[in-house]
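Postdoc handover notes: sequence design on the structure in folder B. Input tokens:
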């Protein structure tokens, strides 16, 4: 029986339990630490370097070549090569973290983080009025700030008191030439911002200090709109069919975002009134409902969004619990269901600047988005993958939280890793992909996705596996964990029906990829890289995703994880306002491919419902 090892990552202090033999790169991803892999984990670039500070790891030839004997002696290893054999403490240098490349891009020549948010604070001493100088308060403020500014209503309302409360020293909060508010005294050190990824299933919010770009906290939670339907189409239907549908869905998402803001502010020990900016990125449906805009046009042919440009408003317009005059921006959208999260993903990865060869960005989620960049042009599409990857519509499925089987290895018997080192309670998306990939390899599932009966199975399978097949209504299910092994005392199965759900999700992604490749005239084998994005994408085992046919059969070294790019793109736009120009350019330059209008989609989808044969293994 393979044992589990505890791996703690520093300086974040995050720990995970993983199966013995797991590569460090995967353990780090499981702990939410996305490590750079420019060479795709081939052990060539050295960018994934980490240091083992407690416990020990064997070193391999590639590590000696890339790192040198001295570093190896000091505990340095390549996260893409090093396998966990015992409990470890591992230090991840800042430069090895994927997010650090975001910081490097926002760093000036002197190595300082160059933070240029839309909201800027400026402290000034205003000349007090006299009998000889009876200009208005706003004229005086304007002069002190350099002149030529518009003083907004919030600022005018606060101005007389703020000026006289602190001996005519005030701090003005500005967005461009617009003064959005003033505060008494010098408050320039208190300026925070928020970046949100509004996913169909999961919401992620990050609090950032806008003075120095430091991240102060991250929270995530389930999108409460899942109670109204687990995909965007069912939510659009609720908005259309129920008189108060839009209001209820809008309030649900707005309240969840506000709860997350309260939570982030409380944990960081700051006042929500000191949060001056929020940037939100989501797919078209999520963004429109968030803005309280009716999404019905997205539910009817030809599926048009209400806006393509960046939407800007004051926080009070949306009812967000940050400073009421704070700047709120929602990402521009490409078209159809390809929304702001895709634009954010493109600016996070700089996909539009990649010239080495065709590169595919695949964000695997309930609403899957795919972008192909080739010869300076981009084509994008979205696919309704459904929530199977999030563990929904799977009989013993669950989200990737404590108790979820997140990794399955099937050899002589079944080995599994459970999140939180707990007893299993169900299976999440990555475990599902692993289980099906291994069952295909062992010949227990055939290419049509059917779990074979004992008479049809290849010879020589171990009894331990044969005993796991359970006949039910003319078909078979596969037992992953018996009732005595689980935390719920209920067995966890991979049901025949679950494999069908996975095939649907899988086929949607694969067919979307194939159509985009065809539109661009690119062969799958010519792909320079596939960038796997999304909270879920980080945890997928690349060879297993390839085995089930979700990704084209290219060398796994060319498949790279890029983390939650929607969240990263939102952070980028929060930290540097000029990213909005880039985002709008991306919208102009990306061609939207609507799969529902593509005559070849159905055929591609049907073909992709079949799992590939063993030839995809390499
Ligand atoms: Fe390049 Fe590890 S050496 S990713």
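Designed sequence:
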């Amino acid at each position: 029986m393979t044992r589990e090892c505890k791996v703690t990552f520093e300086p974040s202090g995050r720990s995970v339990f993983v199966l013995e033999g797991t590569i460090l790169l995967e353990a780090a991803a499981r702990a939410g630490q996305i490590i750079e892999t420019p060479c795709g984990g081939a052990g060539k670039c050295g960018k994934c370097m980490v240091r083992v500070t407690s416990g020990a790891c064997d070193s391999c030839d590639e590590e000696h070549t890339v790192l040198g004997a001295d570093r190896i002696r000091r505990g340095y290893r390549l996260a893409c090569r090093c396998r966990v054999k015992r409990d470890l403490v591992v230090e991840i240098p800042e430069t090895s973290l994927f997010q650090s490349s975001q910081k490097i891009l926002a760093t000036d020549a002197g190595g300082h983080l160059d933070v240029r948010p839309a909201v800027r604070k400026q402290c000034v001493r205003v000349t007090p009025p006299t009998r000889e100088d009876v200009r208005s308060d706003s004229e005086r403020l304007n002069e002190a700030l350099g002149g030529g500014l518009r003083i907004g209503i919030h600022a005018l309302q606060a101005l007389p008191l703020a000026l006289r409360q602190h001996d005519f020293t005030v701090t003005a909060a500005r967005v461009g030439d617009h003064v959005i508010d003033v505060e008494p005294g010098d408050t320039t050190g208190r300026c925070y911002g928020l970046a949100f990824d509004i996913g169909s299933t999961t919401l992620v919010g990050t609090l950032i200090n806008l003075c120095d770009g430091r991240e102060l906290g991250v929270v995530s939670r389930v999108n409460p709109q899942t109670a109204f339907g687990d995909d965007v189409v069912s939510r659009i239907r609720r908005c259309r069919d129920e008189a108060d549908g839009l209001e209820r869905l809008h309030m649900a998402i707005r309240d969840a975002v506000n709860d997350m803001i309260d939570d982030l502010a409380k944990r960081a020990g700051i006042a929500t009134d000191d949060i001056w900016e929020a940037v939100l990125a989501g797919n078209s449906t999520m963004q429109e409902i968030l803005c309280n805009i009716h999404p019905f046009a997205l539910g009817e042919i030809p599926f048009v969004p209400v806006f393509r440009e960046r939407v800007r408003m004051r926080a009070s317009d949306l009812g967000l619990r940050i400073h009421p005059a704070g700047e709120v921006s929602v990402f521009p959208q490409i078209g159809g269901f390809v929304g702001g999260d895709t634009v954010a993903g493109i600016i996070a990865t700089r996909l539009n600047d990649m010239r080495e060869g065709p590169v595919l960005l695949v964000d695997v989620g309930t609403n899957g988005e795919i972008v192909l960049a080739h010869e300076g042009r981009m084509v994008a599409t979205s696919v309704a993958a459904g929530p199977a990857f999030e563990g929904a519509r799977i009989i013993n499925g669950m989200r990737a939280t404590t108790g979820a089987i997140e990794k399955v290895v099937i050899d002589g018997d079944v080995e599994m890793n459970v999140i939180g080192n707990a007893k299993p309670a169900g299976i999440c998306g990555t475990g599902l992909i692993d289980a099906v990939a291994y069952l295909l390899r062992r010949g227990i599932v055939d290419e049509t996705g059917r779990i074979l009966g004992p008479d049809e199975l290849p010879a020589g399978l171990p009894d331990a596996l044969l005993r796991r097949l359970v006949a039910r209504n003319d078909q078979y299910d596969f037992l992953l964990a018996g009732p005595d092994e689980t935390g719920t005392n209920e067995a966890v199965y991979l049901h025949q029906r679950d494999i069908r759900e996975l095939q649907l999700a899988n086929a949607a992604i694969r067919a979307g990829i194939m159509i985009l490749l065809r539109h661009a005239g690119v062969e799958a084998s010519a792909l320079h890289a596939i960038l796997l994005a999304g909270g879920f994408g980080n945890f997928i085992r690349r060879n297993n995703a390839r085995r089930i046919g979700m990704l084209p059969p290219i060398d796994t070294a060319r498949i790279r994880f890029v983390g939650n790019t929607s969240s990263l793109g939102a952070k980028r736009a929060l930290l540097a306002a000029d990213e909005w120009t880039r985002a709008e350019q991306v919208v102009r330059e990306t061609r939207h491919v609507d799969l529902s209008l593509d005559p070849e989609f159905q055929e591609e989808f049907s073909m992709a419902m079949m799992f590939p044969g063993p030839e995809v293994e390499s």
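Context for whoever picks this up: The longest strand covers residues 202-209. Don't rerun without checking with the PI first.
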